[in-house]
Recover the amino acids of this structure.
């Protein structure tokens, strides 16, 4: 009944930690109208990380508040600004009905992590969602030159937040390539480059494509004959080609933003990150004792490393050392309360049949962020605790948020069958088995027993 615990991901080189978050980022607001100046390029600013960031936004008059519009985030080339790309994309945006935003990097010469993102880019997109009716599953990146390299990197950090990425004249460096095995989703990439580009030689761009494809990303590369690095003269053709690729891509679930912590190298904290990454490698290889040892060394170096407690707790749980897992999740919650850690600790309580504590943890997780899996987990705890009406409510909520959650249908059907509601129960069982055919054999005996009980009632 319970969902499998998830581990958090970390960058294998450098100071960045990746976290494989358990729940989806849900959008909690709806915008019914567009601003007055639709159709103009507006220059605006946003305070992020204590610094003022400038950006340009274009909302064509063809965008309607009745239909969510795609959003394209444009990352400019070195020594340019966001307006330089907005200006080249606005005609196509008006035709295709997409919203454009072009942020400036803090230093026009370079895009830098974490100064320019991913946090700032995320805050920018979320702020635009409060102003415009944006389709959250159709937020894209496009970058040129320095912005292209940054677009590639941000895509790897936030592979379940952006639907797809297209670039012109850019490539991954060795540190970026080292991130590829840690990326949560194989985000689609489209790359264009001139065959005579002096800044990004064809061989280096092909190497980026090949590295992506070797990790299952299915990156496309378009080589433009006799074209050099200059984007602006060919922009109409480059943009149409990029958009033809991008507009076919869409997230299958609501976007999820991974909150990264960037720590300086050359410190105990940096060494803790290295040990944490070692733990991830061992955990992926199912070497749980070695993973626990590495996470323990990370915690010794950085006692406030919440993610290390989380992952060590998951390793303990998978070794059936549930009490140690609870202790680690509890410590992580003291350091950094989060929905996924409450959910993970709830799963351990549920496995120990400590239903009241499991219900409380799932409730805390839902207070932080509602999610189908967590409703499903709390419904399972209510079900095992024989609180069937509350369980049914949670399974309803889980199905509303994720209509493909097969086990929620199964358990809702079981509750309906206990209430003598044979027809709706049968519909739920059929839906569950269509989604996951193996559930038929798993629950057939239990369903038959309940049906017999219903038939025996006077």
């Amino acid at each position: 009944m319970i969902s499998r615990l998830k581990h958090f991901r970390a960058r294998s080189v450098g100071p960045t930690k990746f976290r494989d978050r358990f729940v989806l980022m849900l959008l909690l607001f709806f915008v019914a109208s567009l601003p007055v100046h639709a159709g103009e390029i507006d220059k605006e600013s946003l305070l992020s990380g204590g610094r003022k960031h400038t950006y340009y936004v274009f909302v064509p008059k063809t965008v309607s508040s009745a239909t969510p519009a795609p959003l394209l985030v444009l990352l400019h080339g070195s020594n340019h600004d966001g307006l330089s790309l907005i200006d080249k994309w606005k005609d196509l945006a008006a035709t295709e009905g997409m919203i454009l935003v072009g942020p400036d990097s803090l230093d026009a010469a370079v895009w830098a992590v974490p100064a320019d993102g991913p946090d700032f880019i995320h805050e920018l997109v979320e702020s635009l969602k409060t102003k415009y009716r944006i389709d959250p599953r159709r937020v894209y990146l496009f970058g040129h030159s320095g912005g292209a390299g940054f677009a590639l990197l941000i895509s790897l950090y936030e592979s379940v937040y952006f639907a797809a990425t297209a670039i012109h004249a850019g490539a991954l460096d060795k540190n970026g390539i080292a991130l590829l095995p840690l990326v949560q989703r194989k985000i689609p990439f489209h790359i264009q480059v001139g065959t005579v580009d002096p800044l990004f030689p064809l061989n280096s761009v092909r190497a980026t494509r090949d590295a992506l494809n070797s990790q299952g990303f299915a990156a496309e590369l378009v080589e433009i004959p006799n074209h050099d690095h200059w984007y602006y003269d060919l922009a109409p053709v480059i943009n149409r080609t990029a958009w033809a690729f991008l507009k076919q891509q869409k997230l299958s679930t609501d976007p999820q933003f991974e909150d990264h912590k960037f720590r300086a190298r050359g410190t105990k904290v940096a060494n803790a990150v290295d040990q944490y990454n070692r733990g991830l490698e061992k955990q992926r290889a199912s070497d749980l004792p070695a993973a626990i040892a590495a996470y323990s060394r990370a915690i010794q170096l950085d006692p406030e490393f919440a993610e290390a407690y989380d992952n060590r707790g998951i390793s303990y749980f998978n070794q059936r050392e549930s009490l140690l897992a609870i202790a680690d999740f509890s410590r992580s919650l003291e350091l950094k309360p989060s929905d996924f850690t409450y959910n993970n600790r709830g799963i351990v309580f549920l496995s120990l049949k400590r239903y009241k504590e499991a219900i409380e943890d799932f409730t805390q997780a839902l207070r932080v962020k509602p999610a189908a899996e967590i409703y499903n987990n709390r419904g399972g705890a209510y079900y095992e605790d024989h609180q069937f009406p509350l369980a049914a409510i949670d399974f309803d909520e889980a199905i509303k948020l994720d209509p493909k959650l097969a086990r929620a249908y199964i358990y809702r059907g079981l509750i309906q069958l206990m209430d003598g509601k044979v027809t709706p129960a049968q519909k739920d069982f059929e839906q569950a088995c269509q989604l996951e055919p193996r559930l038929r054999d798993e629950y057939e005996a239990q369903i038959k027993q309940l049906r017999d009980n219903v038939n025996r009632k006077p």
Observations:
- Strands lie at 41-48, 51-58, 69-75, 99-103, 134-144, 164-168, 189-194, 220-224.
- The domain at 1-19+271-368 is CATH 1.25.40.10 (Serine Threonine Protein Phosphatase 5, Tetratricopeptide repeat).
- Residues 6-38 have pLDDT under 50 and may be disordered.
